[in-house]
Amino acid sequence: MQVVVIGYGSIGRRHAHNLRTLKASVAILEPDSGAQRRAKEEGFQLITWDSLQSRPSQLIVIATPATEHLSTASQLLSEGAALFIEKPLSHSVEAAQEFVQIAGERSMSVFVGCNMRFHPGPAAIKQALDSQAIGRVLSARLEVGSYMPDWRPGKDYRHSVSARVDLGGGTLLEHVHEIDMVHWFLGAPDKVFALQSPGKTLGIEAEELTEVLLQYTDGCIASVHQDFIQPYRQRRYELIGELGTLGWDARLNEAWHFDRVSGKKQTLWKNEAFDVNEMYMNQFKSILSALKTPQQDSLKAAVAALHTVACARVSIQTHALVPWEGSKESVCHP
Question: How far apart are CA 61 and CA 277, in angstroms?
């Protein structure tokens, strides 16, 4: 299978190596000379935009900054290859909606990086929710955070993509996975409220802390905490229902179910030696097995996440509850 990866930053590099492990023939398109040199040293073929058009590929991976995702994808609509676009799909929900329409008209396969759905911990929670293990969900709390200066030692984090507004940085888009996950667990909300702290502590242009509240028609209230300021990496979810509680903690590598009636806690998944790269591998195994038929479920889910991000931004500016008016189709796709 012929694959092209556009962008050889940290996530593009991960995807390239994983796809090669899955027996794909991978070429790299990257304008930065330093990244080009690294890709070549690691055994990848380098190509240009001109040679891309003459190279028949089954899959093209777009791992550029968020603000370039859809402009890059739009240039590839006539290539005939399936597209994988890293999260977030875009920094603009309007541009994302327009792209979805075009992709639909052309019956293209477009996948978006929803890799947390392929982590066995959250997947165990999803399975328990679908089996009504805790009954009606009353409350949910999803938290993700870490200390940005520690992300890439030796590099000035203040100039990174995640720190720059013009490249789609900030907690809302960088940690959009947790928005997608609350959609996966509970569906699209009825209303959204959000608060945000600017990047004063870290000295960055983009926001460094966001709290998003999602209100549902059945009375459930979910909260999503996103930050760049925690002294250690944290990612954990907890959902409280009428019949018990479900939880997952990435630091513990454990998912559990507490049953209110029996008073007992059951481990749903635990793997202290879990390698997070397994999640990314699972994602591409699923994608490669689905290339023969047009797929757009994750694309629609990614647009739904951007709708919530857009509602959160309006709420931050107006200090008001904002109605969620996006399409609720495929928000909870498998």
Answer: 17
